[in-house]
Amino acid sequence: MIIMGGGLLTDLYELNMAASYLRHGMTDRATFSLFVRKLPPDRGFLVVAGVADCLDFLTGFGFTGAELDYLERTRRYGRDVLDAFERIRFTGDVWAVPEGRVVFAGEPVLEVTAPIAEAQLVETVLLNHMTFQTSVATKAARCVLAAGGAQLVDFAFRRAQGIDAAMAVARASAIAGFAATSNVEAGRRYGLPVAGTMAHSFIEAFGDEEAAFAAFAADFPTGCTFLVDTYDTPGGVRAAIAVIRRMRLSERIGVRLDSGDLAELSRQTRRMLDDAGLHEVKIFASGGLDEYAIAELVRQGAPIDAYGVGTRMGVSADAPSLDSAYKLVACGERPVMKLSAGKVTAPGAKQVFRGPSGDVVSLRDEPSPPGHRPLLEPVMRAGRRPAAPEPIETMRERCAADIAALPAPARALRDPQPFEVRRSERLAELGNRVSAEIQAAHAGGPPSGLPSV
Amino acid sequence: MIIMGGGLLTDLYELNMAASYLRHGMTDRATFSLFVRKLPPDRGFLVVAGVADCLDFLTGFGFTGAELDYLERTRRYGRDVLDAFERIRFTGDVWAVPEGRVVFAGEPVLEVTAPIAEAQLVETVLLNHMTFQTSVATKAARCVLAAGGAQLVDFAFRRAQGIDAAMAVARASAIAGFAATSNVEAGRRYGLPVAGTMAHSFIEAFGDEEAAFAAFAADFPTGCTFLVDTYDTPGGVRAAIAVIRRMRLSERIGVRLDSGDLAELSRQTRRMLDDAGLHEVKIFASGGLDEYAIAELVRQGAPIDAYGVGTRMGVSADAPSLDSAYKLVACGERPVMKLSAGKVTAPGAKQVFRGPSGDVVSLRDEPSPPGHRPLLEPVMRAGRRPAAPEPIETMRERCAADIAALPAPARALRDPQPFEVRRSERLAELGNRVSAEIQAAHAGGPPSGLPSV
Hints:
2 copies of one chain form a homodimer. Chain A is of the alpha/beta class and 453 residues long. The first copy, chain A, is 41% helix and 18% strand. Chain A contains 17 helices and 20 strands. Chains A and B meet through helix 1, helix 3, helix 6, helix 7 and helix 8 of A and helix 1, helix 3, helix 6, helix 7 and helix 8 of B. Chains A, B: Catalyzes the first step in the biosynthesis of NAD from nicotinic acid, the ATP-dependent synthesis of beta-nicotinate D-ribonucleotide from nicotinate and 5-phospho-D-ribose 1-phosphate.
């Protein structure tokens, strides 16, 4: 969704720095590289997401009159700076790894080259979209891996971290392979399949499970799922069976288990349904699920056909953020890097080449090593998108193919081994040279680390 | 911010249930109670936040033409239901605990009484706002507790879970006692003080710390903070001292440490500044901080004047969601409850009374026990707010007073002991009676638990 303006969607220091660049006539094109420094525990890969929202933001980027009025009232900036802000648009180039692609720590996923003030001002929003959406797409892809072919539905809306977070979760989980979302607005906005069952309150409002199920089936004759755990699960299953038989329901009928020992209850429920001849009735499970809980249910052979996965996926509960960074790597013709303890960056605009035995992070203009293909693609030139946005289905297929191609240790849910990532010789040499130059220029002490990939 | 519409900001099952209620003529007023079932680990209290966004949503609630068109295209609902959706507004009453107030597990923080379809449709958004914003306000309050009087600045925008999450984080952390935010749009939207320093890229763009600091000080002569860890911290501090002396800077000047051993570096920096006679120059620390890291720095006596607290606060990293619920507790004149394993709810509209030795959860119409005061207040009647929105400053004072009044074990960062919460006799009796009635009505087996508070 393209919104014009958004210049205040940033940290104050970005505005301050941009003001300073503009006042000092610093209009050199700078390149910033967005990457994840380190994978969180129990992550063997990341699934890229968030690029489309970044491009929407950059397309509409600027300051509205109301935004400029606010800045004027703060008295922080002079007329010269406010005039410059009024004129500013994003005129830069962006390279990005397409959404759905699998990446690893230290690999640039998005690079911006633009006049330095523009590139600086957009940092906060680009980091926000890429960090959050990539962490959720990754979590969702792990759920898909764990489910071994069972269908997954996004149930995260109610406990996502905000309303637009819920939209991003629905989209990111669709990229990762979820079959549907419960989020109706996301269904509309992104064209996703929408699914839902019923809540305990529905049963309680009728006061009686059979009455509630019968009313619901009458209203939704082309498919419905009965929630059976409001009072006690076997009793709920009996009520569902009675209604299914009495109303001769046959199309897309299921029961949902939402509490208790799901492995045991699903077996018991399956037996009861099968004994009633209702082999086609599906079992749907939900309630505090994530990839670990799903993997355990699959391991126990629970006869569950589909899972509703909510909060823990939607906030990426065990890794709710990533150690992401958006770092200046070139300014004008000059490659730059920082040497802060534990946060050393590698200089220069980059490319990542994927080969059969691992990835190579290179300088942007290096040729592809034999048998490798580049991951970063130009997605914006001079502030314009060269191509129409990609459909989610394409991202979803890319994600499935990338994950299928991963070595098994990188796919493991616990203690995974990420795919190998090396630096090209030219990148390593440049890092060493720039680091040595900075050390020579600063008598203040040795730098605290060597450049990582 | 009131937006008209938003009827699709919901889970599909809410629409399905509402459609069914409407078709079956079920227009009884229902009461839903929103509460947190259990505190996350290391939480001795919660700070309520999110009520204002809930009321904004309810005020504008309805279906826009575009939303109805989408629903019509899904062919899920007949003309009768779409017409009913077109007319629907939120006409109910809301009671809530005011923002900034401290609450505990099992205490209703918001209760909605409305025709059941309306109350059902708004569940998803109400849970979303209250769950997320309460978890972040709580996390932020813990940072304030840990900082022992040092100032805190919200740096969470870049890795918050979405753009509106970042706005909510700035607001919630202000309620919890943060002094400022780096988030400029949140500053504008909520009238919050905005603060910021400079990034490593600024230093790198100039290529030289002294040149960068001098340029920045020339542009912001009424106050600036120099980032000193781009290459090595003592060298950066020396450069800052040189610029401060040469330019005779005196107003609101600071240095920011963003990496390395902050306790040791802050002591070293303080000595260097003091040796240069710059006693008034402040030390600002940032980089992966949360309440635990701040408490450790304070314990070590680190001479840090202010902290930038970002990602871990903004996503509430160790508890990124709460076990929140929005449960039907009364339907018409009938109190209701569910008995699902581990998720038993207590029936009836409620009030919470706070007394010197703990809280009492009661039925709404019970009198206050002596020396207690009610926490839930009417905040919306017949779909309208009786009063103007409260200023954040009022919420902030309430939060500070409530936390100061907590027993020390409830305030502990690790293994806290929450304040005592009891149920009134009348609530306990009602729970037992309704539970027994449900058990008598369901031959399917015993219920799996007793009602919790």
